[in-house]
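Could you please consider the sequence and fold following this short note?
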Amino acid sequence: MSDTQEISIKITDDSTPHDKDKEQITNDFTPHNKKKIAYVACSPKMEYVATWSIEDLSAVGWCINNNQLKHEYMIPKEKRDYDNNFKIYIDDYDDYLRYDKNFFTVSDNKFVTVFIGGWKMDAKPLFLNLPYFEMPYSEITVKFLAFLDGGDFIMITKKPTYRIYIFTQENNELIHKSAIKIESYDENNEEMFLSNGKLFMYDKNIGNITKWDIKTLSFEAHFLFDNSFDVKDIKLSDNEVLLFVYGTKTEKQLKEEPYPCVSVYSANSGIKFTTYEYEKTDDIDAVYLIASNIGARLLIVSHKQIKDEDKEDYPYEYKICDPFTNTRCVNSKKLIVDFEVSAKEVKVFEINYIIKFDKIDLNDIDSIFILSDIEKIINLIKNSPDEAAKLIEEIDNSKKEETFSKYLVTWILEYVNDAEKIILTAKSNKDDEKLDSIQIVPKLYIDFGYKDWRYVIGCDCLDNDDLAMVTIMGVFIWTVSAKDKKIELSHYWDDNGSSWYWDRQKENSDKKNIEKNSEKENIVKEKIKQLDEYIKELEKKSFKKPYFFPPSTYSSMIYYDSVFLQADSKKKVFFDELIEKHINNKFCLFLYGKNLIKVIIKEDQDMLLRKFCDGCINLIEKNDEVPDMQLFNIISHSIVEIFKKDPAFFADFIMRISLFEIRKLISDINSESWDDTKPIVSKTLKAIKDEKQESEVSEHKIQSKDEKQINQIEDMFIELKD
């Protein structure tokens, strides 16, 4: 056993205002006696915060009120009761400095673990003092401490055995409730991480991470990893939507030296969204998901590695990035209030505070493909029947202009030439600059002779500055592209056209029958009702609000004419552009790909099918960090339908996949793993030959294949589905 440290659980609660160890806060209170804060711990429900100073050896408790911190109390080093507190031990003081979150933790009702100090230089285990409960062992070394939502306390021990101890709270005491032995853990080949009440196990040999419920050790999710990745830490976002993995990549083609990087995954599905790579001289200190209710941005804190002979100070760098797509990073120093520290002054990351839910004032208007405020959209849809009924009864349009604004963008709806057209304009709130204008009424709607002012039923600006618009056609979500400052359609949704004014069977029917006000009103009410019911169904499917938009209604976007005539006589095809964007965007493919390819096949869109499959191949070839199996899995769910529809294209697609895999495997020929990969290469070459012969079979022969052969094709992809 190496140098051993002691940790004490100090109970501090408002119900015990005369706690002898608690120093009451006065008006002239100075937190930590002006010493630097080393660690910050937030309670599970973000109701309470504790800060720790290494220099002062003091802990300060804070409550959170309207996003502001208020001092509650301080536990100074002079007032800690060393003998009458529960003590446990850690192996290495450096571990405590590097992984403060493993040991410094606070509950919503103000329990806090406090470092006592004084490490023991002998190699013998220390005995524990446990006044509050009995433990099965008298000598325990701890690996993790954490408070969970609900007040339970988790302690993961590593000596004498790996176990998870669960404690509950009763009368300001921790009561031992249960213990779970971690049977299969191999400390030489596995790493263990704890975050937000979830246990993560990283297997170094096979390169994967598993996610487990900490109380029951039930399996929840699996994450594919490259075993050349030396994982430093794994962290869940506070809303438990994203998983961050950061550490050092030890091997990569064309890069001889290790380099740090941060990878972002879906915490529920295991899908890998993106990876941000840093220079080999950089150290990553922390990763946060901020503004999650606005649109989510990844805050990465890093600094340059320091050598003793260096004379130059390297301050911390704060960069905000899109957690879903690998785009530009924005310098976010403005978000850090009164904080400037050199990496040479202290060897651990320190930070005063980050206001997690404040708006991002960094001129950062990258597209965000998430549902930032579902309540606004639900209310917008619920109010639509009444608004639509008013529009139907109107003879003349009284509206000339409507404005909707949030943080960075102001949206203006302008009804021009007696509502002959409706112009949507986006302006920057920063400098009042006009970014872009478009005409939003589709040609199909105009051709049917409707009044344009009746087209838009209602609008609202979402918290991420996108504009939600309910129209006679359906729900549009408009955004401003960060690349060229142009207005783009980021999402479109309707009820699959079943209650449009025009439908597939009656497009050429008498317009007069459709234009009767009574029939119009019923159709609009029925349409809005179906939209509302669909949104409610989405809420029922999950105990939490949906974080991402549901898939766009691709069937309507493909079927109906998407031409929007513009003022300059040009045409915009927003539907086509949106589908193309979803095909060529990795994040959109992961979220919506399975739904999109099914619609493409159903609608007999051969060209789109080829674009879709080509898009998957291009994304794999473009970035070797893309998890190949995830993209193949999207296609595998429709592989039988693709084969039936276009056998020649199917064979060509399989051959391209095989060639791509061989190109990767050939790089292993000179490695120690070649004996294992050689049979795979041989099998793949045989598959290419077979598919080549298959593609040359005449069309009538292919169509005569029996169900058994179809099943064989499906079996080839069973691993992808699983």
In short: The chain has a mean pLDDT of 68. The chain is about 25% helix and 30% strand. The radius of gyration is 30 Å.
